[in-house]
Amino acid sequence: MSGLMERVTQKALALGVPLSVHLDLTWRCHLSCIHCYLTERNGRELTTAQLVRLLEELAECGTLFLLVSGGEVFLRPDFFEIVEAARELAFSVRVKTSGTLLDDEAARRLARLHVAGVDVSLYSHRPEVHDAVTRLEGSFARTVEAVRRLVAHGVKVRVVQVLMRMAEGEYSRVRELAAELGAEYSLDPTVTPRLDGSRSVVRLNASHAAWRKVFEDPELDARPEHCPLSPEPQEAAQTAPEWDSLPCSAGHTSCYISPSGDVYPCVQLPLALGNVTERPFREIWADSPAARRVRSIRVADLPICRSCEFLNQCSRCPGLAYLEGDLTGPSRLNCEQVFARTGRRPAPLAE
Amino acid sequence: MSELYVARHPAAAWRRLEDEVIVMAAQESWLFTLNEVAAEIWEAADGRTPLASIVRDRICEKFEVDFEQAYRDAEELLRALAERGIVLLSETPLEAGAP
Ligand code: SF4
Ligand code: SF4
Question: What is the ipTM of this complex?
């Protein structure tokens, strides 16, 4: 994180500002990715008017960074209306899409709206492997074409690869492909449980050997997709500062809002804070007991992790811990990654 | 002295955080902050209000500074920002449309 970004995040923390918000516009998607975290497909969705009102509220609360995602955002007929409203309110807007519905006109409009960037997922450089993940034949070709279109119109694109076992040896080829297309590349090493906690998809994760390789790759910053970097509280004690640190930014300077308006600390941490159709966002953010609970947790409050010798090497995600049953517990997936990286088992894996 | 008009560049994303303004130049992914005085000018930079009026109405009284000096400083800052493509400067009013 740049020094300035760090300072801005710090200030947002001190002021209680939700600097980064991830907003999912729709549950719907014409792809059926085998690892998708969404468990709902036909749920209620906020209307255009509700979304525009929500954007106004977020701007008033100080949100600057807005990630607009889904489902497939282009399945919302009002997608551009929403992005236009967001840009009029001066948000820095990133869009996440499969790109499979993005035509030349859409690329041109995104360029004209000066979005900060577009994220697209590629799971392999081999069409058949990518299509096997999305379960939509031809999706690889369409996604690659979308990247080309966006880049041609001057839109910044980031290819995001969630590392999966079936393509674990190929990430450098995906990185090369991104470079050839004129896009940035980012790798998320973890397939996470679904939002209802079901863990069937976790078996899609890469092997320990592949994890070790990506963690050791100096050119990669392997981290969870859309995970805003964490601010450190100014009042951290001098003696053992890590004990006073926040587990991450979720609920402190960032949050997630689902297509139906449920507010969570993070897309990965589905602990409901409230719904924007029932209460103004500002009140949910400031006042919900669940938000206060999340905000009260410091590393010193994590009974197992605080005395783990790997604490400083571990990117423990509170959301993963929550999905495993305990917000303050260890996340076994993160323990596994530490084991892959160091060859030594953190305590929870030794049990 | 000819009039000078200033508009925020339509590509910029920005937000006021208490006494300062955080600006993100979209494609550059370049972040910077504007201090209290610059933040006032930024918020008033609608392309239609002459810079002299902005300085007189929003800066001189609030910050108790002399007009000539404040205007020179503002112009210097805005020329630097214009060079980096963050604001648009013109001797005639600019089209609205900046967020
Ligand atoms: S390795 Fe496991 S126990 Fe250790 S800090 Fe990470 S999540 Fe906690
Ligand atoms: S809950 Fe996990 S994914 Fe979300 S911000 Fe925290 S560490 Fe990142």
Answer: 0.91
